[in-house]
Amino acid sequence: MTATLIESEDRREYRATRRRGLLVDLSMTLATVLAALVIGFLVILATGKDPVRAYEALLTGPLERSFRVGRWLEDATTLTLLGLSVAIPFRARQISLGAESQLYAGALAAACVAIFLPLPPVAAVLVPLAAAALAGAGMGFVPGSMKARLGANEIVATLMLNAIVVRVYDYLVNGPLKEPGSSAVHSERVQPDSVLTPLTEWLGIPFGRANVGFPLMLLTAVALWLLLTRTPLGYRIRMTGSNPHFAEYGGIRVPRAIEWSFVIGGAVAGLAGAHLVQGVYGRLEPGLSGSLAFEGIVVALLARNNPLVVVVAGLFYSYLRAGGDIMEQQTDVGTEIVVVIQAVIVLLVTAQALPDLLKRRLARGQAAASRGPSGTSRGPSGTSQGKPGAAHGEAGAR
Amino acid sequence: MNESWDTAGPAVAARGVTKTYANGVRAVRGVDLDVPAGEIRAVVGENGAGKSTLMKLFYGLEQPTSGEILVGGRPRVLRGPASAIALGVGMVHQNLMLVPSFTVAQNVVLGVEPGRRGLVDARAAAEATARLAEEAGLAVDPLARIDEVSVGMRQRAEILKALHRRARVLILDEPTAVLTPQETEDLFAAVRRLRDGGMTVLFISHKLREVREISDRVSVMRAGALVGTVDTAGTSEHALAAMMVGREMTLDVARAPAWRGATTLRVRGLAHAASAGQSLHGLDFDVAAGEIVGVAGVEGNGQSELAEILAGLRRPGAGTVHVGDTDTTGLDVAGHRRAGVGYVPEDRLYNGAALDESIADNLVVDRHDRPPLARHGLLGPSAVRAHAERLIEDYAIRTPDPSVPVRALSGGNMQKVIVARELSVGPDLLIACQITRGVDIGAMRFMYERLVAARDAGAAVLLISADLTELLALSDRLLVLKDGGLVGRFDDTTGLTEKQVGLYMLGVERHDHARLTAGLDGTTGTHPTEPPPHHEEGPGDPGDPGKASPA
Amino acid sequence: GGADSDSGPASSGKPRIKLVINGGLGDKSFFDSAYEGLKRAESKLGYELKVVELGSDRTKWEPGFEDAAAADDYDILAAGTFDVTDYIGELAPQYPDKKFWVFDSAVDYSGKNGCSNKCENVYSVTFKQNEGGYLAGFLAEKLVAEKALKGAESLNKVGVMGGVKIPVIEDFVVGFKAGFKAAGGRNSDVLVQYVGGDKPFGDPAKGKEISTAMYGQGAALVWPVAGLSGLGTFESAASAGRYTFGVDSDQYQTLTDSAQKNTVITSILKNVGNALYKAAEDDKKDAVKYGAVESVGLAEDAVGYVDDDHFQEVVPKQIRTELQDAADQVKSGSVKVPSAF
Amino acid sequence: MSSVLDVVLSSAFLAAVLRVATPYLLAAIGGLVAERAGISNIALEGQMLSAACTGALVAGHSGSVAAGALGGVAVATLLGLLLAALRLELGADAIIAGIGLNLLASGGTAYAVYTLLDDKGGTSGLRSGTLPTVPLPGIDDIPVVGDVLSGQNVITWLAFLATPFVAWLFHRTRFGFHLRAVGEMPDAAASVGIAVRRVQYAGLALSGALAGLAGVFLSMGYVSFFVRDMTAGRGFIALAAVFLGGLRPWGVFLAALGFGAAEALAVQLGTLDVPPQLVSTIPYAMTLAALALYAWRRKRRGAKEVAPVSL
Ligand SMILES: Nc1ncnc2c1ncn2[C@@H]1O[C@H](COP(=O)(O)OP(=O)(O)OP(=O)(O)O)[C@@H](O)[C@H]1O
Ligand SMILES: Nc1ncnc2c1ncn2[C@@H]1O[C@H](COP(=O)(O)OP(=O)(O)OP(=O)(O)O)[C@@H](O)[C@H]1O
Ligand SMILES: [Mg+2]
Ligand SMILES: [Mg+2]
Predict the structure, then answer these.
(1) What stretches pass through the bilayer (chain D) (predicted)?
(2) Which of D4, D227, D274, D280 to mutate to test the interface with C (most CBs of C within 10 A)?
(3) What's the domain range around A35?
(4) Cα–ligand 4 centroid distance for B7 (angstroms)
């Protein structure tokens, strides 16, 4: 009888702790972002610039004009797709750094189809997208199967593939695919039918290069979330990442799950490439993605590889990128400092110990409270406001 | 190093010690415990009673939330293991704390390496290890890599680690859970020697028989609190069990005679070449529906390899395996599972569970792509949750919620998750390895009941265990493995004693080929028509020629 | 970033130039030269200058230009390289009251790519870097043929180290080869190699390695056309005891190490800064030809070589006259230098 | 074909291999130390960059090359400690923290150079000099060997000594012993009273210092000035070498040397009439092939090891 009593108490407490944990996670993430911004503020102050104006640009700049909102959404689309593309292999605990090669492969495929293959209207959009996904998937398959079948280290394989593909891409854009007769280095434009419809056209507000890729990206994220949480394949990928021995024991073909994680990730990165070609540039350009591939990794890890959270992290990070650029343009804070502030924010936001520390304190305050004489009946809810002072004292004593 | 001992006081003691973990779990509640020097003190209690936590407090791995720890007769503040080690406390952890790629000797000296000016003298380390091993009677190979030696040797290496640090108090947290009976014997002999040399030993085990055998006194914990301490001589296993769980409790499971059905598992000429571990050669045996066939053998004689082959985790080199009508010889794990094989692996942490995933997810690994969980290629989270809730209920898994990660469960509950998964599919063949390793008496009894229930529901059960008592209590028939081959076969286990089986395990006696393959179709020296001989022989005369089929 | 806000026309009433750089300053050649020219315009001609650096991340360029053009803090927006022509082509029609200068490339005045207003408010200036390359090749062949390079008399090869193989760089190379041949050299004696990689114009270590390899293959002289990577060439030349030409700006002046300085025979100038300064001058007189592209080269003094004391000391008189003659032929149009465009 | 062979066997090429491999060797060995201590050092690139910048700036302003080198190594060491602190004290993900530090280094060095020298490109206007080369009297007269070995920069020598040093450290010293234990089984190390964090801090400091030497070599050995982002991805190649080398000192040594050799070869072949972008893929394609081949052979050997036993 005591057992059941304790059990139900446990259950209540567990739920309460979980709820509290979520709340703490959320509020602490916001707090760390704030802390990072404060440090950035001090950095600007230290360099003798006007931090208030700089922050105005950083924080409100991206929303000031619809064009900038478009720039933010367009950037977030690519960045989030890249984050998603690594989040999937990360879930299988495969450190794939290959988003860059997959993106370039996707971009090449999309461009080749969209430039050279005459297609009827709707197909003209979809076929290049499919080609890009396929090419990205293929580019993911190489390191994926090298890892799964041969045990070759995926970090090395993906880094090498990046180096190779980027150079081959460079060669193609400068050579065979270069627009004939142009002094500029880029390919021809994609056919008008292949262009991802700009949001401007839909909404009638000038949204720059933002296009239907954005809602498509949202759909992709949801699809990937469903894949991970609601499909057998997603289950296999998760279990493989959590404990491959267990997965194998349970009848999961681990090499195949690993390969799939790379292939799916590759396909998504390929779509990011197609988005750049069909939506953003309308053609192949050298150095297509800038540093986005790496920042995609940051976004995925910040979001703990949860596809839906990747969207939030991607929007956040892109906002920061956009705000940083505006800050550099509108104020006298130089690019270097903008980069430094971004680095500080990245470093601080990833600091997990802060939320955990708070959670631990709450738990301890909780334990102390329930130990009190009135004890049993009141349970956890009464104590959640806690006694920060007491908790602090205890922590200090350790 | 431990000159500051007050020899008059207790070697270790706790005064009003309470420990609350960061997540709010209060593992130890107001414990007062005194252990005088030179005593072997057993600490028993159910899984999660707080035994390990209390020991960690003595070893400085955790700090008490309130109360006081005494070592060497004086109150101490142990900031970490280093300060406990300095005071002469050594601990062998429940989960061994060894560096896999290091040699035995390197592990033994880790932290207090011999050698001058920041260098490690490898030779001196090996010599010191060998000398200590000699003195304590703990046989180890100092130069072997830890990940290549048996669990028993790892256990001994752990003890040597403590001895190397000149421990005066030795904490052994379930050291026998993974040892063979012989290894346990050797360990006990060594522990007694150490005690006679003045060492204080704290010994934790779920095997009350061992507790009775080795300890001077027993302290019983329940739900974090100390229930009492009794003289070993004046108590019984029954009394201890009752103290632990608060009511009467035995391990005797009522078991009707087996009702053997058709042959479910048919193994013929099975051979396997293992790159590491024991190879198997020429195994022939059957397991019928509705019987429990035990596999006895000194650990490392091919049991694990056999289990893994039967589960599809390894490929046999030669021979055939049939489960029901399916030839599973070339199939992968999924194929085996489809053929109706359930498997409780011996190491639940290694491949039995994904520790960071939820209980619910852990319960569906073999059925996540089939109805009712998955339909039209979609895995329904509510179906998975409902499935978990049902099993949590049925198997009395103690957890607040199916979404709790398995890591947060106690050992016994973790094991229940695995058994629940493997039994709930209703397997035709269940391979159960070391199912009660490290679980408390309540859970043990529970597992036994479940196994018998599965048998009675028509499953063929192959029970592999290092615990002979358990094998004899549960098996309808018994096979003995030695050096990767079958050396004994007992078709009736009534009246069979551990001693008799032990002779086969050690290779002193063996059954002849004809006896081993009697009644098996498709093997030499068999009359397919003749029913397998039952009940006709006394277990004491295994070589009875009348029972062997004529060649 | 610049110091000015988005406020309306400058209170000072000075014409305001905004230099938008799709890259960064500090490249010691192209953008630095443009900046220098406009800086001069600021101090001498009474302009107000603001610089915006967009960095090398291409995803930030178009939004950067859009923002730069939308802000009402300039009268003239200057930007360079072929990468910007599309952006300017789009933006110029949207801001018809503003003026745009494009250097080193031209917008498409035909109106096929943007330029819906035929880019009437855009002035483009391109450079005949192939003419500079021609002179470099000509001089290089003369120097080796006449064995005028001390310590390298036995060598008859020369090298060109490009950043990456893109048309602008190729234009230098094509010109160089033509000049080398015109002076009597063989094509096979010209080694051409590119830095490439992650930072083609900013990896001096690799630049040094490539130059060292070229000297090792018997090049008497290596001409780096690779931005900061080229700084590695001067180091390599100094330790190998061989020779170099500078590029874009007078690198004999900018180098600090005397051993390295002395490897520089002359520098082939592609004076973006001068061209922009001249445009600024002309704009004061309303003499800039908007809606058209101007191609400047040797004849306009936008391309040339440094003829200083050091040059005269190292290069024999006869070769100097021959070089001058070659330059005159190009200027007069009697020699047509092939181009990569 | 024979011309390629001539190139490969020439002393100039071999000397170039040593030179090109130097930063890879040092950074990769640094990455190895961190990896074995249980914290991936993705910040190698940033550590190299900061060291390169600091080295050139300090040397240029103090006039002492040694002070520059020390300053550079010190800053990289601090960055190593910072990475450890972010991981250990703030629970940051090592990979994100590493990427963050790389960003920080890129922005920070550019800012420092701009503020101090008013030059956005680098320190080429500052005379900072290079670390001395080591002439080998006696040996430099020997035909090929002399040309290859003599006159290499002192850091190149350090780079080649770093591997035996770290191998010795790992296997012979108490610190290395603890470091490996901490990286492999932190709980086991903690349970015998090893101060796990302290060891990890020390490991990351050493890792940073080695990466710092690599950076210093770039700006004070290879060339004599710092240029913005001059590491040009070398830190990531070094990281690849860490894993390609199977996390063992001599394996990493071979991998890094291989990268050096392949890059030097690509430089030598660069004048051929092949698109330069394609030539520059040679080192990476070779690595990828080597990786696949090595993994395949290991797998096959594993299978073979099993087979004979059954006979
Ligand atoms: N490492 C852990 N972290 C968080 N919570 C834990 C951890 N271990 C156990 N718990 C929780 O503490 C509670 C008590 O577990 P405990 O081991 O006491 O159960 P038990 O009934 O003794 O189990 P057993 O079946 O082994 O006897 C459980 O609800 C469990 O989920
Ligand atoms: N690190 C931890 N954090 C939170 N809770 C813990 C932790 N370690 C143990 N617990 C919980 O504390 C309680 C006591 O655990 P402990 O390990 O002391 O039990 P035990 O008596 O050793 O059990 P077993 O027989 O299974 O080893 C359990 O509820 C357990 O789940
Ligand atoms: Mg328990
Ligand atoms: Mg325990």
Answers:
(1) 65-88, 95-117, 154-170, 201-225, 231-247, 252-272, 278-296
(2) D227
(3) 2-353
(4) 29
